[in-house]
Every structure is written in structure tokens, then in C-alpha cells.
UniProtKB/TrEMBL annotation:
Residues 8-30 have a biased composition (Low complexity). Residues 42-229 form the NAD(P)-binding domain. It holds the Pfam family NAD_binding_10. Gene3D superfamilies: NAD(P)-binding Rossmann-like Domain (3.40.50.720). Residues 1-30 are annotated as: Disordered. It comes from Pseudictyota dubia. This is NAD(P)-binding domain-containing protein.
Length: 230
């Protein structure tokens, strides 16, 4: 995978207080435990569900946004024998909505004091439109700025932005033909993030699988390899 980062010292970790979902009471300071409230945009997706599931297992609170709340499942990679069951947790709030609708995005940031945001959107352009990634991410950025939230991680793809040379030859052909629209959207999405002024990390994976996590990540030069979502 390739990544592009602004403010490399930033992390979702750090001292903070636990903030319970809207409608329940805060449980006080968590400076020692470093628990956070993380928004996951696109929460029913294969990668986003890993983000949500692993954050919950780490003791964080998660607020997810998805068009299909009933599709938020325990992921195959990390979920083991529970994979495919509904993802339910007292620290999880799932909001049904469309990321291209600013009012729906605003609901995420009204559900709790968000510390950081993960955007892991997907879908075919024929289903979600030619500009969903860019429009949705711009809505998220606007909502973050309104609330004073700085930390943003965005999952795009190898081949996006300045990572074209890391894509395999056959994938480059797809990028210029069948996947041209989606890569135009990914490039514009990355540009919106880069000019946002936020503390961001763009992650560009290739060959995502639903296998169990290996605990091993190889950082390489040149053509990117596959990686498990977990």
C-alpha cells in the first residue's frame, strides 16, 4: 500500500475524555486509556467494517454512516467464527444516510464528540454516481471544520494521485479504460483532502483481501502488493 500523509506526528491516540453516544452520559476522563470516538464513513463496506470492528475491540466509541445500516456486519478478516453476524456493540452508533447529503453527514458529528474520522467509501460509479467520493469527502471535511476536528484518514487506491507508477501494468490499463471514471473521482477526492488544511493520511491499498490479519506489513518501493483489509 502507498500512503500520503500531512503532519506525520499526528495519531488518533492521545489523552482525551471518553464521550458516550448522544443520549447517554460521559464516563469521564480517559487520559490513561486513550479511548477515542471515531467516525467511520461508509461503515458497511468491507474495509470500513474492519475499521469499526477493530476500533470497538480496542475500546473506542464508533459512529458509523452508511446507506444500509442492516449491512453493517462483523468482518471476515478479524471476526473469526462470528464473521457475517450483525455488528452490535454498546459503543457503536450507526446512522443511515447518504454521504453526499450534508444533512446526513452532520448527523454523524451530532452523535458525539468525534476525535478522528475514517473515510472508506466504495461502490460502482453506475450505482453511486461519478462524483460520490469527492462530493461525500468534501461534505465530511466541511463538517469536520465546523466542529474543529482535525484528524482524517481516507482510503483510496493504488494508482491514485502520485502513485500511478506503483500500479501493475494491467491495472494501469483498467485505470485508463473501464475504471477511468472512478479514478477521476478518486484523484479529485485526494485533491480535496490535500487542500483541506486538516491533519490527514491517505492510504492507497492494492489487492485487498478478506483474509485474517497476519500482523506483518511490508513497506516496499515500486509495484505494490496485496494486503488484507484487517
Amino acid at each position: 500500500a502507498s500512503s500520503h500523509r500531512r503532519s506525520p506526528s499526528s495519531s488518533f491516540l492521545g489523552s482525551s475524555r471518553i464521550v458516550a453516544p448522544s443520549g447517554s452520559s460521559s464516563s469521564g476522563s480517559s487520559s490513561a486509556l486513550c479511548m477515542k470516538t471515531i467516525a467511520v464513513i461508509g461503515a458497511s463496506g468491507l474495509t470500513a467494517s474492519e475499521c469499526a470492528y477493530q476500533a470497538l475491540k480496542d475500546g473506542d466509541t464508533v459512529v458509523g454512516l452508511t446507506r444500509n445500516p442492516s449491512n453493517v456486519k462483523i468482518p471476515a478478516g478479524s471476526g473469526g467464527s462470528d464473521a457475517g453476524k450483525p455488528l452490535e456493540d454498546p459503543n457503536l452508533t450507526v446512522i443511515g444516510g447518504d454521504v453526499t447529503n450534508p444533512a446526513d453527514v452532520a448527523k454523524v458529528f451530532e452523535a458525539g464528540d468525534i476525535d478522528g474520522v475514517v473515510v472508506a467509501l466504495g461502490g460502482k460509479t453506475s450505482d453511486v454516481g461519478d462524483t460520490m467520493l469527492t462530493d461525500g469527502t468534501e461534505n465530511v471535511i466541511a463538517a469536520m471544520k465546523e466542529k474543529g476536528i482535525q484528524r482524517l484518514a481516507v482510503v483510496t487506491s493504488i494508482g491514485a494521485g502520485d502513485s500511478k507508477d506503483q500500479a501493475p501494468f494491467f491495472f494501469k490499463i483498467l485505470m485508463m479504460t473501464a475504471m477511468k471514471k472512478i479514478f477521476n473521482d478518486k484523484n479529485n477526492q485526494e485533491a480535496a483532502v490535500a487542500k483541506s488544511g486538516l491533519e490527514y493520511c491517505i492510504v492507497r491499498p492494492r489487492g485487498l483481501t478478506v483474509d485474517a490479519p497476519t500482523g506483518v506489513v511490508n513497506v516496499i518501493e515500486g509495484e505494490a502488493g496485496s494486503i488484507t483489509r484487517a
